[in-house]
Amino acid sequence: MSFELTRSAERFIRMMIMADGKPGSGFRLAVTPGGCSGLNSDVAVVDAPAEGEQVVEKGSLRLFLNAESRILLDGVTIDFADTPLQTGLVFHDPKATGSCSSH
């Protein structure tokens, strides 16, 4: 499994952990199929990984990913968008076959 985090995404995750976490907290990222990029996500700052989650370290960040998320994120670049239309994590998946604007 290999995925990239942009600086904007790293900054967003770091700010979430600083605001809601304690030392050693991590960022739970649960990804499911769906959405404009082909992926939906649920995020939370938690103290420890849940059963079945793997700790993936990206720089100084600790991400807690379940098995499905690890598979779906392979090859994906995770970005953060803050626009009038969208605020949150954005997934750029080279395997995605369509987008919301292609309908």
Summarize the model shown:
The chain is an alpha/beta fold and 103 residues long.
Q: Explain this structure to me?
A:
- With 103 residues, this protein is α/β, with parallel strands linked by helices.
- It has one domain: Hypothetical Protein Aq_1857, Chain: A (Sandwich), CATH 2.60.300.12.
- The chain is 19% helix and 39% strand.
- It contains 2 helices and 7 strands, in the order E-H-E-E-E-E-H-E-E.
- The chain has a 4-stranded mixed sheet with strand order 3-2-5-4. A 3-stranded mixed sheet has the order 1-6-7.
- The mean pLDDT is 90.
Mean pLDDT across all amino acids: 90
Q: Supply the helix-strand structural class.
A: alpha/beta
- Provide the spatial order of strands within the biggest beta sheet: 3-2-5-4
How many beta-strand segments?
Answer: 7
CATH architecture, by name, is Sandwich
Secondary-structure element order, N to C: EHEEEEHEE
Indicate the percent of residues in helices: 10-25%
* CATH class group: Mainly Beta
Question: What's the domain count?
Answer: 1
* Major β-sheet profile: 4 strands, mixed
Rg from Cα: 13 Å
Low-confidence stretches: none
GO biological process, one term: iron-sulfur cluster assembly
Domain Core: 1-101
GO molecular function: 2 iron, 2 sulfur cluster binding
InterPro entries: ATAP (IPR016092), ATAP_core_dom (IPR000361), HesB-like_dom_sf (IPR035903)
